[in-house]
Amino acid sequence: MIFQDYAKALLPWRHAYGNVSLALEARGVPTKQREPIIMNLLEKVGLADHYKKLPSELSGGMQQRLQIARCLAMEPRLLLMDEPFGALDALTRQTLQDEVARIASETGVGVIFVTHDLEEAIYLGDRVISLDKNPGRIREIRDINLPRPRTQLETRATVEFLDHRHHLFNILQH
Amino acid sequence: MKTLMQSVFRALLVPAVLLLIWELVAAPGQEFLAKPSEIAPVAWQILLDGTLLKNASQTFAAALGGFSIGVSAGVFFGLMLGLYPTFARISEIPFETIRPIPSVALVPLSLLTFGFGLRMEVAVVAFGCFWPAAIYANAAAQQIEPRLEEVSRNLGLGFFKRMWSVIIPASLPTIFVGIRIAAALALVISVTVEVAANPRGLGYAMIIAQQTLKPALAFAYLFWIGIIGVLLNYLLVSIQLKYFAAGTKIRRP
């Protein structure tokens, strides 16, 4: 489970390393085996050089990556991400979108990603489920068959992408 | 160098004036108000001949023992109060009823239970230290970021792991304020118990000084108790500054 408010979800008194370690401690991984796992995960989210920093010394995007690393340490089969990039600036957001896509394909973890951003949904998803408001019922399930790996510039400019966007936009208007 | 001299001068000015007034007011031949010039040699002498150390260590043993027991129990109880609303509700009435009892009022009961000596003093000090620790731990537990609780549940932390790795570190800065209060209280209560009943330690030494009509000796002990209190507070504030200063407004006194 990845929370939107990354700043509150990390232990402020533990270094990046220790925050990832918490998940391993919870699983009962012996101390000696933790280090390679932690460094590997930090590497994967691009924080290997910052392992000794406290969350307050990391930027928003880095904190969110740290949270992702901690979640991956649980070796989950499914990641639940509740608007994880909602509070990030546009550029960081795009970088992290690509990283999540890459991590998902590398580790084979499934991701359920909640977002209000249409393009984000299409760009990341294999399947987009649009929900009605009040009560939240499923409105439509739409498969997205854009080829992977996707790129911010080209994928977003394809006819298919724009097609999906039109369609979903119209659904949400009604 | 000049500024250091100035600040030393400023810090010592008021005490020096007060001591001077005291020296002048305490008329010669006046029996019960000792002059500073009479107190100073006595204070120095009890420091050198070891009586101060002997008495202070007795008081300290009781203060430290009671402090440790009272604070541990208080922190645990307070955290439970803060974490489990049901527990808080069922213990509210006993908690609020027992809390206003002054520690010293427990002296007769503690004397009956434990007799004279270390144990009865420890019991009374522990009772006194329990409350500030419990109250601050309770407040600390209530202020814990709810998101961290969700994270603990998410990661599947067990009760002890959650306590040790999340709850206690998150509440320690607030709990430490309670610990400082409890430490000062431990010294006050142990001396009070010695003055009131227990024949040991600094408090009893002052009673002896009073009964043998040695006001200078009583004042000398009073002086050292003050110094011990200052040092204790200095130590605790240093710990607080070192470990828990981030995000708080703690200043060196």
What distinguishing features does this structure have?
heterodimer; A: alpha+beta; two-stranded parallel ribbon; 4 strands; B: about 250 residues; mainly alpha; 10 helices
Topology, pairings included?
The complex is a heterodimer of chains A (174) and B (253).
Chain A: H1 6-9, H2 16-27, H3 31-44, H4 60-73, E1 78-82, H5 90-107, E2 110-114, H6 118-124, E3 127-131, E4 138-143, H7 152-155, H8 159-173
Parallel strand pairs in A: 1-2
Antiparallel strand pairs in A: 3-4
Helix pairs in contact in A: 2-3, 2-4, 3-4, 6-8
Chain B: H1 2-25, H2 36-48, H3 51-83, H4 85-98, H5 107-114, H6 118-143, H7 146-155, H8 159-196, H9 201-211, H10 215-244
Helix pairs in contact in B: 2-10, 3-4, 3-6, 3-8, 3-9, 5-6, 6-8, 8-9, 8-10, 9-10
Verbal overview:
The complex is a heterodimer of chains A (174) and B (253). Helices cover 51% and strands 12% of the residues of chain A. Chain A is an alpha+beta fold and 174 residues long. In chain A, the strands form two sheets. Chain A has a two-stranded parallel ribbon with strand order 1-2. Chain A has a two-stranded antiparallel ribbon with strand order 3-4. In chain A, helix 2 crosses helix 3. The longest helix of chain A is centred in the middle third of the chain and has 18 residues, at 90-107. Chain B has 253 residues and is an all-alpha fold. The two termini of chain B are 22 Å apart. The mean pLDDT of chain B is 87. Classes of the chains: A alpha+beta (174), B mainly alpha (253). At the A-B interface, helix 2 of A face helix 7 and helix 8 of B.
